[in-house]
Task: structure prediction
Amino acid sequence: MEIKEKMIPSKSVYLIEVKGELDLYGAPDFRKRVIDRINNTSNKVLFDLSGMTYIDSSGVGAFIKILQELKKAGGDHRVIHLQGGPRQVFRLSNIISLIKESENKSSAADSLGGQQC
Amino acid sequence: MLIIRKLLIDEYNELFDNQGMKYIEYPGDYSRVRKFAVDILKECPEEFLEDNLLEQQLSELIKNGIKHGNKKDSSKKIKIWYDFRNRARFIVEDEGEGFRELERWNSFYRKRQEALHNNDFDAFLELASYRGPGSDEDDGGNSLIAALEYWNGGMIYNKGRNKIGVQRWFQGGSRK
Result:
């Protein structure tokens, strides 16, 4: 798994691109890293999952924990390009309703950036 | 519609009939959970793999056995029976003390589904992952939720709660 991250300064949005397999071995570090950014960088988070090829219950659990932390921090999130097998796993885990999806990066950043978090 | 599934115990369920099934056993090596699943699925018809969903679900069963059952004790084995004729069937047995929290989990799942049904998203977010006495912070807490959905031909625990039988049917089946 590879994580690329950057700020979109004009929107104060923290962009995270997840690439590869978010599984039981990589999920704990992913969770800790994103929660650290939420608490220290920005509580507006945009996940680009276009490169994510696999996720398991540990990865889904990491997302749930991140969403719980975002709520505590008064923040918000958007997800783009949740597709293929990973989308099926989110659906089977019955947490799709917690995921706020946007069509693309700019519309996601706009909807997050327009909010006062 | 409110749908509440349950984890069930049935020692004599047909899902535990291992006649004609292939068998393999592995050491309780947590670092090789996914490798074990991939190895078994080398014999699986491609149409059953479904975007790696089968590998993911089999990995969860093996992970639960090695982590929660065998407590990552590498001297304890994980035993797996499998069969890919017309559908995917597995029996996975560990050497642990069994899933003592089964009733607690069923109670958790009922509350979770009720929160979702009532559109109470704050409660649902809090209940999204199961947390019990045996959980640690790295547990996803949702593998059994997906498993109950995925194994559409049944998912049953034995009386000792250390063995699980699962089955999934596929559209069109397979002649292999």
Notes: Residues 5 and 52 of chain B are 24 Å apart (CA to CA).
